[in-house]
Amino acid sequence: MTDIVEHHTLFIAGQWVEPAGTETIEVVSPVTEQVVGRVPHATPADADKAVAAARAAFDHGPWPRLSLVERAEVVTRIKDAIAARHQELAELVTLQNGSPMLFSVRGQALSAVGAFEVALAAAERFSQEDERPGTGGPVLVRREPVGVVAAITPWNVPQLTIAGKLAPALLAGCTVILKPSPETPLDANWLADVCAEAGLPDGVLSVLPAGRETGAYLVAHPDVDKVAFTGSVAAGKAIMAAAAENLTRVSLELGGKSAAILLDDADLAVAVPAVVGGTCAANSGQACVALTRVLVPASRYDEVAAALTGAFAGLKVGDPADPTTVVGPMVTRQQQERNLEYIRIGREEGAKVLTGGGVPKGLSTGWYVSPTLFGDVTNDMRIAREEIFGPVVCLLRYETVDEAVALANDSAFGLSGAVFSADPDRATEVARRVRTGTITVNGFRLDLAAPFGGFKDSGIGREFGPEGLAAYFEYQAVNLPAPNPS
Ligand code: NAD
Fold it and tell me: Any idea what the CATH number is for the domain that residue 269 is in?
C-alpha cells in the first residue's frame, strides 16, 4: 500500500494554519480506487479569513505597490522552482487524476511552466502607463491591478489552469485566493509551498481545497473583485449569475465540442495522429479543447474511418504511471459512468461503434473507458452536441466545404478546432470561417503565447499571452490639463 499524502493545515495568507472545520477531502486514486491523499476541507469561515487577508494585502500591503519588475523577480523564482521540480509535480497530478505520465510531464507540469513563461514575457513588454492625445487635452491611460482575485479551477489540467490565472494575477499586483477542485488538492498545496519558498509576501496567496459550496461563497463575497474560473458550462453560468450581484468581474473558461475538419485533400499521415493527439492522447480525452467531432468528406469516409479505427484500437490503455500508456483512467467513477452512459446513448441514437464502446478487458479495477470511435454520427445526436469528457469521438460525413463549416459552427460551444488540407492556405481560409477561440491548421495545438478562450458557451475572456495578462488590470484615464494656448 502506498503512503497517503496528508495535510492537516490550510495555506491561508502565506501561513499553514489550522482549518476552521474538521471535515476532510479524501483523494482517491483512479487506478487503485484507494485513498492516496487527505487534506482539510476549507469552509466559508476559512474563506472569510483568506479574503480578509487578501483584501488587506491588496489595500495596504507591499505587493501591489512593488514595481512590475520587482514582482516579476518573485514570479520568476516560482516558475524556476516549478520547472526544477516538474517531474515531481507531474507525478503528483497523475496520482490524483490518473493523467498518463506521457501526457502529464508536458501537458500538466511543463505546460504550467509555459504559462508562467508567457506571462513573464508579456510583463516585460507591458506598459502600465501611456499618454495619448485626447479630445480635450492629453490623457494618461493607466492600468491598475483588478484587486482580490478568486481563482477557481478544475481537476483535468489543474496546474495549467492555475498557472494561467496565478502568473498574470501576481504580475499585475493582485492578491489571489485559489480554490482548486476537490479531486486535485495536493498539487495546489504543493504550489503553495513553492510560492512561499519563492518569497511571495504573506497575504498574497491562499489555497482553499473545497467543493462548490466554498467556491460559491467566494464568488458571492463582496470583497472579491474578480473571479477567474475554469470548469463546466453549468458552473460558469451559476458563477456569472452570482457575480452579477456585486458586479464582480468574471473570466470563464468552459467546455467544448470541437471539430476537426478534414478537407478532401487532407494527408491522413498528418490528420490521424493529430486527431488521436487531440482526443484520446490528450489527458485520456479529458480536455476542454478535444477534437471530439471529426468531419470527413463522404468520398473519403471509409478510408478515414478505417485509419482512425486502427489508430484508436492500437492505443495502449492502462496504468498512467507506465510511461508507455496513452490512455489512463477517468478521474472518478462518476466520470467513467458518464462516458459509459454517453456510449449507451450513442448506440441508442443509431451511431455505430467502430472500436471500443465499453470498459477495456482486464481493467475492472480503476475507472477505465476504451478509446471509442462512433461512426455514422449526425450532428443532431446528443453524442455530437454534448461534452462527454473522455476518449469518445464522433465521425461525421459532409458533402461540401460549406456544409463542413456549417456543421463545425452548429454547436453551442466555440473553443477549439482543426482544419487539415494538403494546402495550408486553403485550410487557413476554412479556419477563418469557424467560430472558435482557437483553431489549428494541420495539427492540434494550444499555444500559450496566444489568447486562449471561447466563443459562445465556451466562455468569456481570454487567458495566456499578453491578453491573459491584460485581463488582470482595470483602466484608469487621467485627463491632464490641456496646454495653455500660447
Ligand atoms: P466543474 O464546473 O464541476 O468544477 C470546476 C471548479 O468549479 C471546481 O473547483 C468546483 O469545485 C468549482 N465549482 C463548481 N460549481 C461552482 C459554483 N457554483 N460556484 C463556485 N465554484 C464552483 O468542472 P470540472 O468537472 O471540475 O471540470 C471539467 C470541466 O472544465 C469541463 O466542462 C471542461 O471542458 C472544463 N474545462 C475548461 C477549460 C478551458 O480552458 N476552457 C480547461 C479545462 C477544463
Answer: 3.40.309.10
Residue 123, in any domain of the structure: yes
Domains of the chain: total: 2
Q: How far is the CA of 181 from the centre of ligand 1 (A)?
A: 8
Exactly one of 288, 387, 394, 463 is catalytic; name it. Answer: 288
**Alpha carbon separation from 84 to 112, 117, 119, 474 (Å, rounded):** 12, 14, 18, 34
Could you tell me if 184 and 276 lie in one domain? no
Kindly give the number of the ligand 1 atom that is closest to the alpha carbon of 231: 30
Residues 368, 241 share a domain: no
Statement to judge: residues 231 and 317 lie in one domain: no
Instruction: Establish if 482 belongs to a structural domain.
Output: no
Is 288 catalytic? The answer is yes
Q: What is the pLDDT along the chain (486 residues), one digit of tens a residue?
A: 458 999 999 999 999 999 999 999 999 999 999 999 999 999 999 999 999 999 999 999 999 999 999 999 999 999 999 999 999 999 999 999 999 999 999 999 999 999 999 999 999 999 999 999 999 999 999 999 999 999 999 999 999 999 999 999 999 999 999 999 999 999 999 999 999 999 999 999 999 999 999 999 999 999 999 999 999 999 999 999 999 999 999 999 999 999 999 999 999 999 999 999 999 999 999 999 999 999 999 999 999 999 999 999 999 999 999 999 999 999 999 999 999 999 999 999 999 999 999 999 999 999 999 999 999 999 999 999 999 999 999 999 999 999 999 999 999 999 999 999 999 999 999 999 999 999 999 999 999 999 999 999 999 999 999 999 999 999 999 999 998 876
C-alpha of residue 440 to centroid of ligand 1, in Å: 24
351 belongs to a structural domain: yes
Which structural domain range is residue 46 located in? 5-254+459-476
> Residue 279: inside a domain, yes or no?
yes
Residues with CB under 6 A from ligand 1: 152-157, 161, 179, 181, 211-212, 215-216, 219, 230-232, 235, 238-239, 253-256, 288, 387, 389, 415, 454, 459
Nearest to 235 by CA among 453, 463, 459: 459
What distance in Å separates the CA atoms of residue 375 and residue 373, rounded to the nearest whole number? 6
CA–CA gap between residue 283 and residue 374 (Å, rounded): 19
